[in-house]
Model the fold of this input.
Amino acid sequence: MIDFGQLLTVGISQLIGPSAIFFALLALGLNIHFGYTGLLNFGQIGFALVGAYGMGISVANYGAPLWLGVLIGMACGVVMALVLGIPTLRLRADYLAIVTIAASEILRLVTRSTSQTEFTGGTQGLTGFGDSFAALNPFTQPSYTILGLEIRGPDLWAILMGWTVVALCVLLTWLLVRSPWGRVIKAIREDEDAARALGKNVFAYKMQALALGGVFGALGGIVLALATQSLTPDFYSPPQTFFAYAALILGGAGRVLGPVIGAMLFWFLLSVADAFLRQATAGENPLLPFISSQDVGAIRFVLVGLFLGLMMVFRPQGIFGRRREVLGDGR
Amino acid sequence: MIALLGTVMLSGTALAAAPAPTAPAPATASAAPAQEQDGIDVSGTLRNQAGDPLPAVTIVAERDGTPVAEATSQADGRWQLSVPAAGSYTFRLDESTLPPGTEVLQGETTREVSDGSLNTVVFRFGEEVEGSGGAGFVTVLRLLVDGIRFGLVIGISAIGLSLIFGTTGLTNFAHGEMVTIGAVVAWYINVAGGVQLIPATIMAMVVGALLGAANELGIWRRLRRRGAGLIAQLVVSIGLSIALRYLVLIFFGGRSESFTDYTAQTVRDYGPIALTDKDLSAIVIAIVVLVAVALLLQKTRIGKAMRAVADNRDLAASSGINVDRVILFVWMLGGALATLGGVLFALSELSSTVQYEMGFRLLLLMFAGVILGGLGTAYGALLGCLIVGILVQLSTLVLPLDLKYLGGLAVLIVILVFRPQGLLGSRARIG
Amino acid sequence: MAADQSNDAGRADDTDTENTDTAVTRDVAGGEDAPAPAGRTDLRRALAGVPPEPGAAKPDPVLTVDGVTRTFGGLRAVDVAHVEFQRGAITGLIGPNGAGKTTLFNLLTGFDKADSGSWVHEGEPLQSLPPHRVARRGVVRTFQLTKALAGMTVMENMKLGATGQRGESFFGALFTGWGAQEREITERARTLLSRFNLDAKAGDLAGSLSGGQRKLLEMARALMMNPKVVMLDEPMAGVNPALTQSLLGHVKSLRDEGMTVVFVEHDMDVIRDISDWVVVMAQGQVIAEGPPEELSSNQAVVDAYLGAHHDQVLEFDDEGNPVGETAELVAEMEAEEIGADAPAPETPASDASTPDAPTSDEEKRA
Done:
């Protein structure tokens, strides 16, 4: 029997949970990259990884205060943008795609490497970086009931802080894209050579955009690590980037709020589908006997992959987008 | 009725991490045949630095300091034990049971055991590979041969990638899945069909060619006709790559599965170099096939047409070449070679096992090689892949074994900084 | 190197050693100064004294090019020994397909890297500058295939052209009040748009404009930069004939405002109508120069267009051209061919021979 009430509750709690925050931040970064500047960053999860580990290592291993750790995490995002951007941003667009996807996988391998265990905690990950964040928590009751949802105190604190960060990133995006700076990066997305012919230093703008979006990604990693109090390398696997892409395209690339709405919606749909599949495949007499419950995690990746491909072909402007600003048209 | 948010969030996180792949530990990692028992299986193969199995060694699994399971390795070095539930365990070698004189690099490891994913524990023996101090001439020579072998395998797999780029402009991120699927098909024919691996591989190559054709006819030709841009095509290939990778996971499973042939082989000495028969065969097969491909490109009509299309599509079309047919052939050739590459990769680098992520991992090195040689050039791809293979193997002189892919990325970044058109590429191409 | 000599009108160009080596088709009738049409300006009088031969020194060159070469896979696409562009003049650049005109444009504006050579604008060498720096120095180009930013409005396109915007830097966008400057730019953009009859379209997406309107927009956008030298790559290609006259008028008005115009064109009528001076290229070299009226009597030009040098693969492909025809006729046939925007049938060399070839490939696939 399918418990639809539970499906809905699961979905609604996912609308505002840390996963939605995480993917909103990743997608906000990708929106700067892909939506506004036309950069193909397929390793956004790598930016999240360096952000989270930059913060985690400096706080847990070196005893840095949390604020410094967060700054270091963000700086790691900038450094990664520089390392990957300098060689590739002068070249055709696919080189950035190749390098970013490679870097995101290799960063994961590095952090989980046994040789780095004392530094990164290996496959076990890091702990003990979030104590001062937890100590700041003003919600001291064990749980709060908000709009019928029961939320634990620490979760409420994490969610509140997470959405504050998202709001700040949205504000920054809005300020930038309506400025002449935003006009230039949109021009670069449309036609690099035209922007060059108009005296714009295309490389510098791409680099700035890559770094900015990378910092958004790094913040995503930082927020998630603090919210879940866990930091393990295998969470940061390359396909996660495509969840963020799916969220971005769902909400509409090249719009300020697109990634946020997309991430919430995406995570809602994904978790409802997930919970449905789990219910449908579990129990004595499963609704879908040909799928094992272990495959559910894999099925969502299949669906996301297909979604991404189909959207690119049939609705490149996103689900809600008008055909006004069609992205990636052959350039 | 009301679900606890925290629980849901946790499950969300855990889910995303569920298909967590294992560390690349080529020469040592392996899985035992799947046996459904109570508890969760953990397995591995003990091999010393030279690749010889270590029998009759005791392995103990501990949870919170209490031993919960124990196993002894068999004649082929394999061991398997079963732990009661998912969680964090420490696995320890009983070093007194080791053959005398065996140096242990890592005899204890702690890891998370989870249900439904591959639980392999790796212990490492032999000379210290991390330090740069002890790298003698023999070690370098051995790594060089390993590198040539690895480079040839990458090269065979990557020719299709490069030719597809050359003829259609598509940067095909799903090429890694062609490698995986090729190897998986060969595995099915070999294990389920009971066909010896060599004919099984040839049959799989036919399937790979058909798969390549299906790719072109079902997706890419239509997209080109629709006028989809190259960036859109690139994103489609990425979506396809994820979808295929996880379809393989669903149907094939997350474990490393072993071929029935050529699993354990002893090492033969060739002067200072020690090679197993399958390693030597991999090198020979790769060279023979590559020479055949070169002859095909150089001597046959279709080969010349392929090079012409890669050089200048419009000119080729206007001089009467049926470009669509040539591209279809390129896809078929690429599919067949990717299959062969997948099988050779499994045999020589993954201890004769097949994994659902093997192609994606190889993809990064294929890109490094293809870009190093010059995107779109067949011979450049080969040269670049050889160099990448050698560099990756030599990098283990200074890098820990599980970081050797880092060398591939480093090569990629360095080449993009200094010679983005690649060794054999021309400047006009990189636009 | 030519920086100090720029104003020396009577300078003999044989100080340039490369020049004598490479200019093989120098057997042009040199002395006859055609009578300038009535009503021409001082400019025409000044140019009248310039000998009509390749590499001739101009009284007041704004751009001086020396020894520029560019090779694509063993093929010399550009090999220009010396050429000067007169300040305030409209200079037409003509030549058969594959003559290297667009490649020369790409080199001069930094969009492609020369193998060797130097070029100087107002005493400043430009050869090592990236394209955006060249543009900021006042040498601004347009493209053969118009690069209107289709997904942005006409007004946004225009505003992009303005230079020195505070809000264009990352921190400037956040922390300076760029609003006042933005209003100023908008005002200037409006004025320019109305001059080009595009004011009604200001809020429309550039992608919705017709081909000719895009050409106009591209030109207007370039003017937002207050350029000194405007380099137009086939401004008339693909333009509705009804718009041609108005486009020509705009090009002339650029000169009247003191700008220097260099443009690539195939249509001989257009060349004769608006250019003050014509530079003819073939096989990457400058083979002739002179006032437009003298072109048809120039043996080098006739040879180039009729394929006298067909031992070189760079020639346009119909070698069976009737030799008896005049150069004009062939040039006009050629112009029609270009109007259809067919990419030049390139040589079967081992790589894409001109930088625009990959672009047009992409556009075809797109």
